[in-house]
Write the structure tokens for this entry.
Amino acid sequence: MRTSLLLLLIAGCSTAPPGAEEARSYVSSLEPLVYENGLLAQGMLGAAADVHDGDIDSAPLVSWWKDDFAPLSQHLAHQAAAVTAPPDWSARHQQLVTVWEMRAAAYVQLDIAVTEGNAELWTTGRSAADTAKIREEEWFRNADESLAPYGLALDQYP
């Protein structure tokens, strides 16, 4: 009887909460994308610092938008859309895909604005990128709140 009770207690304590496996699977599928998202953010910060410090002329800036920032943001949106999220995470994942698609569209607009020297297009693209950034931060905050009971988190900028 004691052995049965002990085994029952151990089995009950070692059981993961409902949804834990799906949450772990989802985090694992997103980790490579989150890493690439961090690389995109790091590149943007480096470029912003160079612009702020006056250490760059327009040619490298045009190249960064055309060759790095816009394509990587589009790649992330496409890769996120290819992730099959577990049912409990499907709607939330679609929100991330939408945010990253919004950001990619904004970055393409910014690429065109820099290439053409179009200040009006830059302003609208920058506003769209800012909106996407805020929505992305909200998404990660909400996702981490949902992942916390499982001892998981997504580091937005690893």
Summary: Residues 20-150 form a domain with the Four Helix Bundle (Hemerythrin (Met), subunit A) fold (CATH 1.20.120). The longest helix spans residues 20-53. The chain has one domain: 20-150. The chain is about 80% helix and 0% strand.
